[in-house]
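hiii so um. not sure if this is the right channel but i have a protein structure encoded as tokens and i wanna go backwards to a sequence. like what aa goes where. can anyone help
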């Protein structure tokens, strides 16, 4: 899974900011039985390799991880909203590739 920040703005620019986003995504994944195999948080996007129960649709997993991580992020880092013109952390699009 890959998704980008709104307007590809570099948001995760320090090791602490990268770790905060990793912690948020890991917490959400644990709460929803999603196993993260690999994660890379870049300044303007996130790469994930995940495993999850087939009862969940891939789009639902993305919705959970993107939506909830944005809420957690803005709670911890409200100053980020000023950087993003619309106040949204993530672009609405994403990429999913399946492995089998």
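sure thing!! here u go:
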């Amino acid at each position: 899974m890959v998704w980008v920040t709104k307007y590809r703005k570099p948001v995760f620019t320090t090791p602490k900011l990268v770790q905060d986003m990793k912690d948020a995504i890991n917490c959400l994944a644990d709460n929803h039985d999603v196993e993260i195999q690999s994660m890379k948080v870049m300044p303007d996007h996130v790469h994930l390799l995940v495993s999850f129960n087939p009862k969940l649709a891939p789009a639902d997993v993305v919705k959970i991880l993107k939506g909830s991580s944005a809420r957690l992020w803005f709670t911890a880092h409200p100053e980020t909203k000023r950087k993003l013109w619309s106040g949204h952390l993530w672009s609405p699009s994403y990429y999913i590739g399946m492995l089998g």
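oh and The first helix runs from residue 15 to 31.
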